[in-house]
Amino acid sequence: xxxxxxxxxxxxxxxAVTALFLGLGLGTxxxxxxxxxxxxxTGKLGSPSATTTIPGNQLPAPAPKFGGVIKETVDGSxxxxxxxxxxxxxxxxxxxxxxxDSGFGTSSTFGGxxxxxxxxxxxxxxxxxxxxxxxxxxxxxxxxxxxxxxHHTMGFGVIAEASTGFPxxxxxxxxxxxxxxxxxKDNGFATSWFGKNHNTPGWVTTDVGPFDQWPSGxxxxxxxxxxxxxxxxxxxxxFRNHTAIFPWRDQPEGTWNLTTAMANEAIxxxxxxxxxxxxxxxxxxxxxxxxHSPHHPTKEWIDKISALHLFDGGWNKLRETIFANxxxxxxxxxxxxxxxxxxxxxxxxKEWEELSADEKKMFIKQADVxxxxxxxxxxxxxxxxxxxxxxxxxDNTLIIWLQGDNxxxxxxxxxxxxxxxxxxxxxxxxxxDQLALFYDKWGGPETAPHMAVAWTWAFDxxxxxxxxxxxxxxxxxxxxxxxxxxxxxxxxxxxNQFHHVIDVVPTILEATGVPAPEYVxxxxxxxxxxxxxxxTFDQKNADAPTTHKAQYFEMIGQRAIYHDGWYAxxxxxxxxxxxxxxxxxxxxxxxxxxxxDLTTDWTQFEDVAKKNPAKLKELQxxxxxxxxxxxxxxxxNEGFQRFLRPRPSGSPGIxxxxxxxxxxxxxxxxxxxxxxxxxxTADIDIPQGGAEGMLITEGGRFNGWGLYLLxxxxxxxxxxxxxxxxxxxxxxxxPSGRHTVVFDFQYDGPGLAKGGTGVLxxxxxxxxxxxxxxxxxxxxxxxxxxxxxxxxxxxxxxxxYKPPFHFSGTIHKITFKPGPPExxxxxxxxxxxxxxxxxx
Length: 840
Prior knowledge:
By secondary structure, this protein is of the alpha+beta class. It contains 14 helices and 35 strands. Strand 21 and strand 22 (566-570) form a beta hairpin.
């Protein structure tokens, strides 16, 4: 029941009167605040300029009772304005930076060879954290980072594209788990999010909502970025708030890049805040695409890095160099041991000297472009920090820079790829083809590249394994830097305490004096699960024991548990880059376990499970306890196969999609076309003199299909991940008048990546027929629209047209009818089992 609760203003805080707040019962302020719920009022209460802090345990703050006087007319009435909510006095600004897919040994700040002057400078003014941990995969780590809760608690046990419908895996951030954006916004901060948003599930990634799972729904008032796991930096899937934008359209290809544009946008936003509310603290979440694939730096940066010849010695030599640098910097102990190079299953990587001259040449190019992307990203983030400094606000800005949301990515296959969608679909591009077709284009608009796994392993030095592997430090440990000049006086200090990204939000709350709320929108909040790192800011606590005593890890069945310095983990049974469906994977409960004493073994070098069986058993029991507590069960060791399971649709219940032109359909509402029949029907009018242009397309340069008219002739192109384009073309131009163009594809299922037969017809007459041997196996492109009447980003075939390629005739209606998915008996059985479990 609602009740009135009175708060007495502190002595000297404006008028000595009592403010009435209407709201739910206000209880004890939770950890993260000052512990004092007394509002701090400035100015005369009731005046237009008055401000107040709020107790913060109920959001939004209860509305104050009107404190003026109301008569029948304004004569004798007295106005009274509700005070503006502001943060606690002296609260710092917060800049939270999260770099993508960058391993522990990547940046110069943590011993890497890639120049990182922005992060180096930040570390010199603040603290380096050598034992920061994450969830080993993109969106799970990000859900944990912005919430202060474990990734399974937030429904992100895996990326949204592979969600499975269980509480820990449904990619649904529920209202009882408010993010730091919502908490600080309701406490008077300006909140914004720039760059990658991999926490909006695909089925709500539409430009018509709902928007509760978008940054705005998480409390971030301004968003400029891409609501998917990755995007082409030259022609990105870009939104301002909820509206798609295309700022590169009028620029020559290869001159506009999101990495720079995003920094420009953040700088502009900071200037607008400073111009209108110079005293208003901000929370700015800066999450660039770098260094996730596709690796898209500018040519200027590629040339700069290539001139340094950082990688000429190869990946084995690089590992040794990084390891030596790390010891010199003190970011690993002097007695740390370098883990062995992987030889033999499940990871068997060639050593540099085993490679041919052509392989070395291509692989050096791959590393140069990755490093250029890293340096470019560091530079642009530096421009944002420079703007804060120009405004005179750097001294009281808490900067938390997370140098990675997981280990370095091994999703580029053992040979790298010019198109990461080929790699995602298990298709290797031979090195000889990379050299012949893509070497000089690598990193530019005509490629969507990723590097070979051996570079990945080197950039995770000194640890074993990579992104996706949550059981090893190479997958879940990344460097972090925290700077707050007004508060942190141990400039250039190093902190070795064990911490995790769930500790970021508690740190922000304690630093700002803002409490974690008990209620948000009347909903009781799930407790914050991390701990604050503020205790580490003081030099006297440089070697203090960590306050983060236990932490579980789990991703795709790989799992581990940290507890009081001990670390138990399962062995890897299949490498994340191994997409061979024939590989036999043991039952997830039959994985072999290892045990490490991290107090004496910094790098997971020596497995001591056989020496300490009782300790291993003890930690396994701790894992089960934590797993039950945080929604980790049921365990599931399927990887990309999960992409095929049923999940909510952005257009629920629709079996035939109908469109008029011009229109673009966002990712969440695109109809499916993989591993199934599909039929496209276009009802069009051709004017006198003929017509050409796009009728309908899904995808673009790196993956997808399109139905269009080229010089009047009907054409259907199926782009198999930019490696082969299957083409159907009519011999004659379609004459003027009203016509029906149909493309009907019959899939050769069941199973994945099978071929099929397509028939292109005009007014019921077949004009082209072709059987193709393969189709895209499992992963559709995630950063293109479905476009009707034109093409918004990249073309499905650059040889035929350049976007926007508007159709010059009239489109009355286009329909797309997908058939049911055609899977193998084993796949269908697996889906049925999972659905049955979900109903139980």
